[in-house]
Design a protein that fits this description.
Elements lengths: L15 H35 L2 E7 L2 H13 L3 E7 L1 H12 L12 E7 L6 H11 L3 E6 H43 L2 H9 L4 H40 L14 H33 L1
Antiparallel strand pairs: 1-3, 1-4, 2-3
Helix pairs in contact: 1-5, 1-7, 1-8, 5-8, 6-8, 7-8
Length: 288
């Protein structure tokens, strides 16, 4: 070995399996984290979109619908209230009934779309009471009721997703540590030679710590980038179907996404480094 040659080879084919394991686990952990974050963001977006929205279904003739709209517009806290035409109503039903529309002889209740200010107190109850006082056959639907149910459901699903992510991260760290330990056992002869030549324990340990730290960081970064690319590709494929794409969250690299992708390689490198240190120091203690 020449004087300038490194104590550890720059490339070692035995590390390929460890790189693959770390990369795969970091991919799964990053992808699960991105999915959980997107689910929370989508739920917040859906809830915000329906907050303050009210739909009034009026049975009767057009005059009754016009009167119901006037009552809604005159109610406190209402910004706007407008009648929805039959063509608009059929467009809303198109995802379930198809683009052919409904036969003309099938009656559709008149629909009124109203928007209320966010701080309007019990505006739906006020409108409902006034409609009944006018003797109108109408049903008032406040969308915030649905948003509350949606938030509760998504919070429960989100907690389950976060639990799964946490379990996956813990598993990834444990497997990375085990794989690093196994890889280092194959280099026990190098540790013994360095120890017999008088190298200090801290120096020997630092050689392997730095090597496996960089291996973990590279593998973790590769897995995180693959997770980001996979998430973007899947969202692209779904949006190409043009089927209820408004339900999906928009792809945008938020601060939280960047944090997930950035922490993944650091966590993988740290796990590999700590495992390398523990394994080397344990081997050195047995040589004393």
């Amino acid at each position: 070995m020449s004087p300038s040659a490194p104590l550890l080879p720059k490339e070692d084919t035995r590390e390929a399996a460890l790189f693959f394991v770390v990369c795969a686990l970091c991919f799964l952990a990053s992808f699960a984290g991105l999915v959980a974050r997107s689910a929370y963001a989508a739920a917040d977006t859906w809830a915000d979109q329906v907050t303050g929205e009210i739909t009034i279904r009026v049975r009767g003739d057009e005059a009754a619908a016009v009167r119901a709209r006037e009552i809604a517009n005159a109610s406190p806290g209402i910004d706007t209230a407008r009648l929805i035409s039959r063509s608009e109503a059929e467009a809303l039903l198109a995802p379930w009934l198809g683009s052919s529309g409904l036969p003309e002889d099938i009656p559709i209740p008149f629909l009124i779309a109203a928007s209320a200010t966010r701080d309007a107190p019990a505006v739906a109850d006020i409108i409902d009471r006034r409609l009944k006082e006018e003797g109108l056959d109408a049903i008032v639907d406040e969308h915030s009721v649905w948003s509350s149910d949606l938030r509760q459901s998504t919070n429960a699903a989100g907690l389950a997703a976060l639990g799964a992510v946490g379990l996956l991260i813990a598993t990834a760290v444990a497997v990375i540590a085990f794989a690093t330990h196994a890889a280092l056992l194959a280099r026990r002869d190098i540790v013994e030679v360095l120890h017999l030549t008088g190298a200090r324990d801290g120096f020997i340990s630092s050689l392997f710590e730095q090597r496996f730290l960089m291996l973990g960081v590279r593998a973790g970064a590769t897995g995180a980038l693959l997770a980001l690319a996979t998430a973007a590709f899947m969202l692209f494929l779904v949006k190409q179907s043009q089927d209820q794409v408004w339900l999906l969250p928009q792809l945008s690299l938020s601060l939280t996404d960047g944090l997930i992708l950035g922490v993944t390689p650091l966590l993988a490198g740290f796990a590999a480094m700590i495992s390398a240190r523990v394994t080397v120091m344990q081997s050195l203690s047995e040589m004393v």
